[in-house]
Structure formats: structure tokens, C-alpha cells
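job 3f2a | input accepted
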Amino acid sequence: MKPDTTYTIRPAGRHIFTIGRDLIQDNYAAVVELVKNAYDADSPDVDIAFKASADGSGYTVVISDHGHGMSRDDVINKWMVPSTLDKRERVRSPLGRKLQGSKGVGRYAASVLGTDLLLETVTPEGEKTTLYLEWSSFESAQYLDDVEILVETENVSEMQGTRLTIHGGSELLAEWNQERFKKLQLELKKLKSPAISSLSNRHGGDEFRINLTVDGFPDAKNIEETIEPYPLFDFFDYKISGHINADGKGTLTYSSQKARNIPEEKIKFTTAPTGCGELDIDIRVYDREKEAIESLIRRGLKDESGNYVGKLQARQSLNAYNGVGVYRNGFRIRPLGDAGFDWMKLDSRRVNNPTQRISSNQVIGFVGIEPENQSGLIEKSARDGLKENPAYDRLKEVTTEVITELEWRRFDYRKKAGLSRPAIKVERDLQQLFSFEEMKRSVRMQLAKGSVDKITADKIIDIIDQDEEDKNKAADEIRKAVAIYQGQATLGKIINVILHEGRHPLGYFRNQIPNLKYWSEIFLETEDPANLGEILSITDGLWQNAVLFVELFRRLDPLAAKKRTTKKLLDLKKTIEGTLSVFENEMETHNVSAEVIDPCGFRFSAWHQDIYAIFTNLVDNSLYWMREKNVPKRKIRIELLTVGDSLIHIDYRDTGPGIEPNHIESEVIFEPHFSTKPDGTGLGLAIAGEAAERNGLKLKVLESEKGAHFRLHPKMEEEK
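job 3f2a | predicted structure (720 res):
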């Protein structure tokens, strides 16, 4: 046996491709990495030149900058050292730019673009260093350090900067067509944010131009342009932007271009600590209806050449540029922000509430984040996004909350402007659908004009009355069915109550039933009284947990009714307390107290399920917002005011964050699908309002200095 000794790890020759060609996901990512290197070199610009050979044998890519260049020592000890920590340790360039590269592998992306690489770099002092690589050398080498690379240095009078010349053969040439170059243009346009730099100089940086030239490719048009953001960014229907501190507090500005003279709104934003550092957010949303596209064009939407676009081109632009991009130090982290890469899950979120929520193809967003050591947001080495860790989850949550602020303001505007689909209010629409009074008045007038005698006219009206009676019987059946569905929908809203309270007894059953079987078998074998004691202990636990289940289902039973019962005289206080009992464990967990005040024991004729539906939805909302906004004092107070046998009103108050005054004025909170919860369906208060209507009641929201204030009162004659 050989004596113990030490060895070193020697990377194989093709390891250079593992951190280059195999790691970088596509040609566009390779170009982007090399552009970032030019930025880190303090260059004011970068030139990207694609030129195809006249005989079709291949092409050349030249990426050049006018930065500070690299010395011979830099080339040998930094550029040629994979995964160097140089940029991570330096953090900033000599002129103060925040460095983009930190993994030490981006330069090897050049292997994606061609078969060889010529590096020429000149320092301000005129020291020129040249290096030439043939990537195939690494394929054949056993170890990485077996490849010998010639590095030459001389003094020159050339301008400072770095020039990379990459050659590709005919196979690579065939990959670059018109579609590929259009995609490259798009990637470069989205590389630097046109919005984030205006929010904070932390994301801006100084002037940096990207120039693109394409020449002689058989399947593509020639290009010669300085990359500029697409004009679409200057136009939007709705926009929300601002800065959020790491503690979750910030100021946002909401604005709209849907109509002239819509004032900007300042919003005090508060959430839990972000968990991902400070954020700068700019979200722009576009309506996709035909009229909205035409309005964009009228407001001055043009193409890169300054020509007004048509409707098709405007839609194509939205299709290409949509997405919520994440930017660090002013540069986008791919693929966040790519059209079709819905990392925010906006489309699945919209499924439950299509009227209020926006889809991914309606939004162009910019989110600026801090460096990795401050935010915890770690960029993957493969340049394919951010690592999915708690900081990334919070980034999505906070950005969703900001989008929600925009969504409900957009919903409110579209409702007032008549742009949204009309809300369906079942009780109101049923009354209108089956009301024949207006028709009977019109028929009488026409019969009178036609000199029809009164007896005949009365018979015609009697026929209409009979039809009205039949139709209203059908309407009552519809009301019953709707009430059942709304009760079950409310039950679905509080499914977390069922899961939370049912988890413990269910776990007990799952764990103890096998034990019961075990001890039963032992007792049958031994008839030992001690074993009987084990059985009795388990059965006692089963009984106690079964009682918990029975009590849980008893409290939920009114909402789960499969059949509509008749109205009954209800003790309102006891009925409301029964609703509160559904949430008793959750209220205890989150230190929420509740009281129902009714000194007279008032009884009211109503459907049990509807009273449950009204207060279940109110309480569910209160618990959510008191918990979400971390309210210190948490209380729900429900007070009945009665005179003799008459109900004057029921006041429902909580100590939560309250309701926006403009929502109170417009009563938009009762519209189906309107919600200020990030993942809300907008059905709760709409269902509560419908349940009140069925029982001759009106649910209103009132202004309050502290918390939310709802009032339930008998409908006035004009409201009926």
C-alpha cells in the first residue's frame, strides 16, 4: 500500500466550457456579459459589430470599448483566472461605477459566439497586451493548465480600451438571421432600465451608450444604431412608482394618462420589512382593448424612426416588451422581464379575479434591487435569474402588493368611466328582470289610446299579473340557489379555519388509531388490566378530538347548507355570536377580542345562512387587515340599535387600518371582483351585500377615524 500523500484538484481542459459555453444560456446572454465588462471598464460606450464574410464561410464579432484597459498583469492574474474574486472585492470601478461582474466567469461567454478569440487591450499609459485563444485547444487538453497561451505586450500610441475579436464558421453564421438580430436588439434595449435610474441614483450610473452594427448577413437587414429604449415606455395607461425602504415603509406615486388632468396621487406605503433590502419600483400598465390601443397612438406613440405606429404594430410592441424586469445597478437580470416569463405569476393570479387583476402582457415593470450582500438576492451563475430563497419570495410579495395598489385604483377608474364589464349584482338584477310595473303602465296607456274598453284592458293586465307571479316564483328559486352558492363560497373563503382547527384532531386520529389497534391486540393476548388502561387513555383522546370535530362542523353548518330553509325569527345577538365562534381560535391566536352588544335580546326575521354570510365575510376581512398591518389593539365591536320591535341598525366596527375614503364614497368595495388584498377574489363584501338585500337590509360603509365601520339597516322605501 502506498503511503498517505496529498493531491490537488486539476480541472479538465473542457472545464473552460463548463463555466462558459455550457453555463451561458444563449448567444444574447453572451453578448450581454461582454457589454457589462465594457461598462465595468469605465468605458463611455461599447461597440458591437457583426460582419459576415463575403463568401459565406463565417462571420466576425468585434466588441470594443474605450475603457481603462488591462495591464499585462491584469490579463495574466485576473482575466486568465476563472472565478476570480477581483470584482467582488473591488465592488466599484476606478471611476466609481458599481461593478456588474462578480462571478469571474462572464468573459468566457465569448466561447458561445465563435471558435476563437483575439483579445487586444491598451492601458492609458499605452501598454498593449494581446492574447489569442482557440477554444478547440481546451477540448483536446487533458487538464486546463496543459493549454499554453501566448501573451504579448508592447508599447503603442493607440487609444485606451479593450477589443475582442471573435470568429465563427458557416454553422454559426447560419444561426444569425433577421429574427435573431431583432431579439438581440430587444435584449440590448431592455438591458438598461429607462425608468429605475430616474427613481434613485443607486441604480442609474453615468452615461453608457451601446452601438450595434450588423453588416452582410444573407438572412438579415443591415443595422447601424445606438440602442435607445423603445418609445412605448413614455406612454402608459396607469403607472405606480416609488421607493420602499428595507423596513417596508415608502412613498409611491400613482398617475394615469387615460384622460387629461388626472392628478397624481401620493401613497404612503407600509408592509412588513422587505427581507430583500431597499427597492425602487416603477410599474406601467396598459389596457388592451381596441380603444385603449388607439388612444396610445393618439397620445404620440412612434417607432424608433419617429414614425407613428399602427394598431397592429402597437400591439406587437406590447407583446414584445411586456414583463416585470429586475435591475441591479441599472442592468437587467435575465430572464426576469422577458415577455412570457411570468415570474410574478400575474396570469395565474388573474384567473380568480379577471375584472380587477392585470395579466402579464399588460405590464412593463422595473424593479431596482441592492447588491447581493445587502439584499440577499443572489444571481445564478448561469445568468438565468435569481436564486429562489426567502429574499426572492419577499421580492415577489412586496412587488405584488405595489401592483395591487395600482390595480384597485385602475378598477375604480374603469368602473367610473364605464370601461369595465358591468358588475353583476344578483338581487338588483333579479328585481329589474322580473319587475313588470313599467310594462303594465305602458300597456294600459296604449290600450287607452286604442279605445280598448276597461274590461278587456283589465283582463290583459290580469294575464300580465299572472305571468309576473309565475316569474317571481322562478326568481325566488334563483335567489335560493344563489344564496346556497354564496354560502358555500363564503365557506371556501374561510377554508384556512377548517384546515387549522381540524389539523390537530385529524393528526391525533392518524397517530393514535394504529396505537389503539396495537394495544387491543396485546390486551386480547394478555388480558392484562394495564394494557386496558392504555386503550382507555387512547379512546378518551379520540372522544375529546371527535368533540372538537363535531363542534367545528356545528359552527360551519349554516354556511354548508345544501337546502334553503325558510326565514325564522332569529335572536340576532346569538346568531352573530355563532358566526364569531367560527373564528374563535384564530382570534385567540392573534389576540383579537370581539363583543356583540344588544341589551334587549332583539329578534329579527331572516335566513340564518344569510346572517352568517354577512358577518363571516366582515370578520374575515377584519382579521386579515388587523393581522396584515400588525395593528397593536385588535377588537371587533358589533352593536344593535333597536326601538321596540323595530331594528334601527347594526353597527360593525373594528380597530384595523380602515378603508380609503374614495372607496367609501364610491362604494366600490361592494362591487364583485374588487379587492385590495394582493390575492383577494373580491367576492366577500359583494356576497355580504347580496345576503343583506335578500333579507330587506342594506349594508353600507361609513367614514371612520379609526378602523372600518359598516352599518346594516332596514332598506328604506326608495331603496326597495
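job 3f2a | Residues 127 and 680 are 63 Å apart (CA to CA).
job 3f2a | closed
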